[in-house]
Amino acid sequence: MADVPRSEGPGAGAPRVAVLGASGFLGSAVAATLARRRLRLRLVARRPSAVPAGPVAEVEVRAADLTDAASLAAAVDGADAIVHLVCHRSGARAWRTDDDPQGEWVNVGMVHALVDVLRAARGGGPRPACVFAGSASQVGLTARTRIDGTEEDHPASRYDRHKVLAERALLDATREGVLRAVSLRLPTVYGESRTPTAADGGVVTAMARRALAGEPLTVWRDGTIGRDLLHVDDAAHALVTGLDRIDELAGRHWPVGTGRTTALGDLFRAVSRLAADFTGGQPVPVVTVEPPDHATPADFHSFTVDATAFRVATGWSPHVPLHEGLVRTVGALARERAAGAGAARLRGT
């Protein structure tokens, strides 16, 4: 699945790649990356996905409820590779880990159903490749300040426990010979959305929207809690690289990140300054507050993601510096806000 020039189209024998969760924030970025390649691309999600602009790939869009076994089987039928990006998060706190018990079927049960579908369809041909989007926070409350994938997992939230169970099911199925799966454990992913229906629900976007609206930004305690921030384009590139190097990577998890941790207080102040640059106003204040009752120990845990093993194995590295990524993110939201205000004025005339 090497990169190909944009001028080349898919051939009759081009591989078929199914992206599950293709209409989401990360899914739309993965779709855009894969659409530049000579392959047959199937974009599957609950709501129709946008077709990336100027695709080289032959793109098929399917709207399907992937919690339905028959729909899931149809979604991956004939696929040479699968990118699994489906997850359940609560709408009220989408930028935090999700403690909604209703999410277990989506986060875990659907992975077991996928394995069952592929096991039933297994023939004498090549086993399909599968890249799973895990989370760096799966490791839990480790004593290490830098994680490299050799730590034992002690997940501290229900969402992370779901991720561990789903990952384990895929890796067990790899050892069984059902498929070739790899889990890439991503840190906090942020960035500008590619389509209006693929909005980022993360902390960077949430705070940028507040700053652009002139609202103060709140940070828990002293703001020194740190996060590894990976731009969505780099995250998408990592997932596609996982498909490219599936034979070297399959059967284990790999932490992916920038290797740098940014304190949330510093992050929010940077977002406030950038928002002011776009609005022409003064930066909104960043104020410290006490954590809410729903905060968990994992919310106060900082660590740096060491992606050395993944970089050595694949040659991948992040290319979007944090400042550039923040400028792009806040700028996109500022333009979206301005367009919305203009449309509202037109409706009022």
TrEMBL record:
Q: Which Pfam families match?
A: Epimerase
Membrane-spanning segments: 17-35
The residue ranges of the NAD-dependent epimerase/dehydratase domain are 17-257
PANTHER family per record: BIFUNCTIONAL POLYMYXIN RESISTANCE PROTEIN ARNA
SUPFAM superfamilies on file: NAD(P)-binding Rossmann-fold domains
Which organism encodes this protein? Streptomyces silvensis
Official protein name in the record: Oxidoreductase
Which keywords does UniProt give here? Answer: Membrane, Transmembrane, Transmembrane helix
